[in-house]
Amino acid sequence: MALLFLSMPERAAVWQPLFEAAGVEMIVGEAAVTDPAAITHLVCWVPPQDLRRYPNLQVVISTGAGVDHMPPMPEGVQLARTLAPGIEEMVRDWVVMATLMLHREMPIYLGQQREGRWQNRPVPLARGTRVGIMGMGRIGQLAAETLRGMGFDVAGWSRSGRAVAGVEVFGATGMEDFLARSEILICLLPLTAETRGLMDASFFAKLPQGAKLVHAGRGAQLDMAALKEALDAGQLASAMLDVTDPEPLPEDHWAWDDPRIVITPHVAASTDAREGAQHALAVVRASREGTEIPGLVDQTRGY
Ligand code: NDP
Ligand code: OXD
């Protein structure tokens, strides 16, 4: 079994000794492939032009938690995402930061600072403030745990509505009730056919007036024109976005200068090279042993 590594050279330098120690062949870059038939595993963010070049490919591993950027896999090829505690903790930290920033009205205070204005506003309590998390997977659950610990009243929404200890989770049919209670809405959904364009005008209308949006899922889940309308109408008070569509936004996009929005350039998480390598090794071992591939994606469902 050999793994083809198509990612950053500085990461390859961390991976190589770990693969050597594990006795798994790792090839860096397509140019170094002498026998395409030897490649059984491929790790990348940007996939190669033609996956069919590798006739014995078993698993393609995304270097991140998401897989929405991947093309359809050739017949028989499995798709996995990287499971790494660091990714989950980093996104949790970003979500908690963004939730607090919006809850404590930082967009307004940053505006006041730029104007040299010292003016206080009512100070809200976290305790009892109703937060709704869309996507109660690995990251959503971690964020829920921390936000609950800070006193926020957290509910979740997921496809299955699967129970999560200590959190009320709404399923697909409970969306309206979930939105109606979400004073701060957090999106941690994967991008799929079902979630593309989900946050539009009718969606925002279901939130309480003056709600705040924290978005770390994927840009294409958010209709930016609807976001602007909701902000202008006071239906939304503010938003913090780590993901946009496209990334980056065009230079002249209205959102760059909108004081109600804080944008970070898709930096909620970045996979730690060591953790990424350990995950890839676990995938190769699982393929060898015929056990379940960690991070296996259901390609029909899209996540
Ligand atoms: P998981 O697969 O563990 O969880 C996904 C959750 O979304 C599950 O609870 C799932 O429901 C729910 N879900 C999926 N589709 C729907 C739907 N149509 N309606 C309602 N709920 C749905 O993913 P992670 O928690 O690991 O990651 C989530 C996403 O976060 C990633 O896909 C990626 O887009 C984003 N991300 C962003 C990063 C950044 O830097 N900004 C970094 C890492 C991830 P169910 O439980 O029923 O299956
Ligand atoms: C990821 C991401 O999916 O960085 O890991 O968004």
Tell me the series of helices and strands, N- to C-terminal.
Answer: EHEEEEHHEHEEHEHEHEEH
Mean of the pLDDT scores? 98
CATH superfamily of the largest domain: NAD(P)-binding Rossmann-like Domain
Domain count: 2
Q: Taking strands numbered 1, 2, ... along the chain, how are they ordered across the largest sheet?
A: 8-7-6-9-10-11-12
CATH architectural designation of the largest domain: 3-Layer(aba) Sandwich
- Which stretches are poorly predicted, pLDDT < 50 over at least 5 residues? none
Largest sheet features: 7 strands, parallel
**Percent range for β-strand residues:** 15-25%
Radius of gyration, taken over Cα atoms and rounded to an integer in Å: 21 Å
Provide the CATH top-level class of the largest domain.
Answer: Alpha Beta
The portion of residues assigned to helices is 25-40%
Question: Structural class, from helix and strand content?
Answer: alpha/beta
Q: Kindly report how far apart the N and C termini lie.
A: 26 Å
Bulk shape: elongated
Count, helices: 8
Oligomer: single chain
Question: Can you give keywords for this protein?
Answer:
binds NADPH dihydro-nicotinamide-adenine-dinucleotide phosphate; 2 domains; Rossmann fold; 12 strands; binds oxalic acid; elongated; alpha/beta; five-stranded parallel sheet; seven-stranded parallel sheet; 8 helices
Explain this structure to me?
The strands form two sheets. A seven-stranded parallel β-sheet has the order 8-7-6-9-10-11-12. A five-stranded parallel β-sheet has the order 2-1-3-4-5, covered by helices on one side. It starts with a strand and ends in a 14-residue tail after the last helix. The radius of gyration is 21 Å and the shape is elongated. Helix content is 30%, strand content 17%. The longest helix has 19 residues. It contains eight helices and twelve strands. It has two domains: 102 residues, Rossmann fold (3-Layer(aba) Sandwich), CATH 3.40.50.720; 178 residues, NAD(P)-binding Rossmann-like Domain (Rossmann fold). It is an alpha/beta fold and 303 residues long. Helix 1 crosses helix 8 and helix 2 crosses helix 4.
